[in-house]
C-alpha cells in the first residue's frame, strides 16, 4: 500500500508505504536447565512473525532503490526440547519439554531493491532478522 506516493521530501524521488509480511525461521541450538549448562541438550525453535511497517523508499534509478522500515510484529515462537529437563520433586528430571509464546515486538530494517518490470530482488537487514526475497510481476 502506498498512502503517500510523493514521500516526506517532495524535492527527491521518494515514497512512503505500509508494508505487511509473513516470515518464518527455524533454528536448532543448545538448551539448558536454568543456569546449569551441565544439564543441556539439543533443542529447536520455530518462529513466525507478522510485521507491519512504514516503508520509506528512496529511488535512485528505475532499477535500484533503498528503504527504511520501522514497525511492529506479532511474533509466535514454539520450541521443543526432546529429552530436556523439567522440574521434579527432587530436582530436574528428563522429559520432553515443549512450549510456545506469542508477543508483539519492535522491528526495524534497512534494505535495497534491485530489479526491472518482471522481477525484483529485495535485501533486508535489521532487527530481529535479515532476509532476502524475490517478487515476480505478471
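^ C-alpha cells above, recovered residues below v
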Amino acid at each position: 500500500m502506498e498512502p503517500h506516493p510523493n514521500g516526506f521530501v517532495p524535492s527527491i524521488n521518494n515514497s512512503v508505504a505500509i508494508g505487511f509480511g509473513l516470515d518464518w525461521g527455524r533454528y536448532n541450538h543448545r538448551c539448558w536447565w536454568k543456569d546449569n549448562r551441565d544439564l543441556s541438550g539439543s533443542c529447536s525453535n520455530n518462529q513466525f512473525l507478522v510485521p507491519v511497517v512504514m516503508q520509506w523508499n528512496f529511488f535512485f534509478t528505475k532499477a535500484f532503490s533503498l528503504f527504511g522500515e520501522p514497525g511492529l510484529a506479532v511474533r509466535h515462537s514454539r520450541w521443543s526440547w526432546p529429552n530436556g529437563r523439567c522440574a521434579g520433586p527432587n530436582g530436574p528430571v528428563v522429559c520432553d519439554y515443549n512450549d510456545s509464546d506469542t508477543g508483539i515486538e519492535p522491528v526495524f530494517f534497512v534494505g535495497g531493491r534491485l530489479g526491472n518490470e518482471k522481477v525484483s530482488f529485495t535485501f533486508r537487514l535489521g532487527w530481529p532478522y535479515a532476509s532476502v526475497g524475490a517478487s515476480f510481476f505478471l
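The chain has a mean pLDDT of 89.
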